[in-house]
Amino acid sequence: MRTDEELERLLGDIESDLVERKASAAHLDRICEAICAFANDLPGHRTDGVVFVGISDDGSPNEVQIDDRLLLNLAAIRTDGNIQPTPSMSVQKRRLRGADVAVIEVSPADAPPVHYRGRVYIRVGPRRAVATPQDERVLRERTVAGTRPFDQRGCAGASLDDLLLEPYRTLYLPQVVAKEILEANNRTLEDQMASLRLFDLRHGCPTHAAILAFGRDPLQFIPGALIQFVRFEGTTLSDPVLDSKEIGGNLLTQLQQVDLRLPVEIRTARRPVGGLRHRDFPDYPLAAIRETVLNAIMHRNYEGTSSKVQINWFEDRVEVQNPGGLYGHVTEQNFDRVSDCRNSVIAEIMKALGYVERFGTGISRVRRTLEENGNPPPEFHFEREFTRVTVRSAR
Description:
Strand order of the largest sheet: 12-11-15-16-18-17
Largest sheet: 6 strands, mixed
Strand content: 15-25%
Helix content: 25-40%
Number of strands: 18
Number of helices: 12
Shape: globular
């Protein structure tokens, strides 16, 4: 975090490619583009870029009211899913040159290129621009293969023939790349997919994320890429099994099957609420169970395990368990407030396809919908090897 003196020196450097000045937050898109450009760090400074809100182009304060609402709106840019992968940034109110200023400091991304609404933005001197294919190639080459998360690494032995490219082209690509860029695209399929971290150019193969999301048979390469659903007649694992199903296929197929399966399992009672009026009371709110399952799919560990996501549906509760404990900066003390993602590309794909509303808010939605339906709060159990969430039936 820079000191006030350092920030004031940056304010005076009109030609710097580490500074963006905004008179107000009226045009939030421009601020998002600047954050994306600083995260990409094409000049290779490896130091934080700064966006000042409330500062005119000449570096003078603009007397904008810097209140909590403005700061919250700026901080929400990080988790709204429009900038991918999620940028590392801080938002603060600072007193500079005798006026209140909102200061956004953006760290260079570990795995560029970073996209904002389908475009890769960079800094070219003091101005902002859309990256060329060559710029994107430079950014990609900065990511060291050994430091990439599992879903961004090349899947050894796989090729483009192992992918179903039609859903990639028709369902996913239009959601993450701007229309005019697609129309003007003259890159190879490999280059195009590499810019989305779905192809490893160095090793000439799709990444694990591509195989998981669009693979013909992900189990050929990732043995744990399954969801196991079991419904029990009683309240223990030793009770008779009423129904059992393995949900396989690629991520698109699994998500579709989950959306078909969960509503069928919820039981609803109709009760009188006065006069001739009745109200339906489900034993679980669909939104809470669905969010819990989607979180398990998105945050599970795929590397070095053949364990599956497990949905165990008992008479009195639903248990959803996924391989992998808490990840990154998330701890048992802050898991409901801090967001970190083991599978950032998988998370991007789920967000683009509409399965994730906003990063970091899923637990809050689960708790709210359970409370509104009369269910007890969810219970969380964390181990090094797995995470389990228990949702109990409404009283």
